[in-house]
Amino acid sequence: MLVDRLGAAIAGQVAHVVDVTLVTLDQQGNVLRAYTSEADGLPARPGVNRFVWNMRLPGAPNVTAPDLEPWHRPDGPMVLPGTYQVRLTVGDHRLVQPFEIEPDPRITASREELQAQFELLQAIIDKLSLTNVTINQIGALLAQAKVWEQRTAGLAESEAVRRALAALQDELHAIRGRLIDVHMREAQLWPSGLHEKFNALFDAVDSADYVPTRQSREVFAELSAQLDALVERLRRVLDEEGGALNAAIRDAGLAPIGLPG
């Protein structure tokens, strides 16, 4: 076992190490997932420790807006059977150990079918990640716009800024409402956004070990097209309404608004 190979060389050091890192890699050495004792709860007590990797890749970044009820997705698809590596770093000591993930003998799907499922699940995670990042960017823009709204309230010379702000906010709220259900905390039902739909599609494709259905591929293609259109719409909004707002702000002698990240 990898822990056994650490031996007495680091047994006394563990108690003093601030951070222990455990990294899973593929056969070529590409990092799949990393855990640390500082951020991920990786056990780092003196003596023998145990940590179970769920064999899944990372999921999507969280939606951070406090006014929303997002669907968190910390885990992505499960890796396929094969040879992998684990790398344990404790202080100045680093050890690498290969290991095998064996196929479940109860599964009748072929390697090619499981590969197709894995690839679709990873593609869904990629689109969900883009969705969540875009939601967070819009949230940051709306927060900036809110500051300018408060700053220019009641100032006659800032009327042009307020008009441009209102136009930008209307567009941002419209796009945000397509990306995620902004009414989740309300009693009545509202249409789901792409955030909820990509998450639901991931669960459907991930629900069993089989080749993705034609319907799931068609749904993914349709949702992806909708997301791409909304991302392009956001770009145009930033160019047009955002540009108009920045021009009004500059005319008022103030600093412009910009997209974080």
How is the topology of this model organized?
Layout: H1 2-11, E1 20-26, E2 31-36, E3 56-58, E4 75-78, E5 82-90, E6 93-101, H2 111-152, H3 159-179, H4 194-205, H5 214-239, H6 241-251
Antiparallel strand pairs: 1-2, 1-5, 3-4, 5-6
Structural features, described:
The chain is of the alpha+beta class and about 260 residues long. The chain folds into two domains: about 1-100, Immunoglobulin-like, CATH 2.60.40; about 110-250. It is about 45% helix and about 15% strand. It contains six helices and six strands; from the N terminus they run H-E-E-E-E-E-E-H-H-H-H-H. The protein has helices at about 1-10, 110-150, 160-180, 195-205, 215-240, 240-250, and strands at about 20-25, 30-35, 55-60, 75-80, 80-90, 95-100. Strands 2-1-5-6 form a four-stranded antiparallel sheet, with helices on one face. Strands 3-4 form a two-stranded antiparallel sheet. A hairpin with a 4-residue loop joins strand 1 (about 20-25) and strand 2 (about 30-35). Helix 3 (about 160-180) packs antiparallel against helix 5 (about 215-240), helix 3 (about 160-180) runs antiparallel to helix 6 (about 240-250) and helix 5 (about 215-240) packs parallel to helix 6 (about 240-250). The chain is globular. Residues about 1-10 have low confidence and may be disordered.
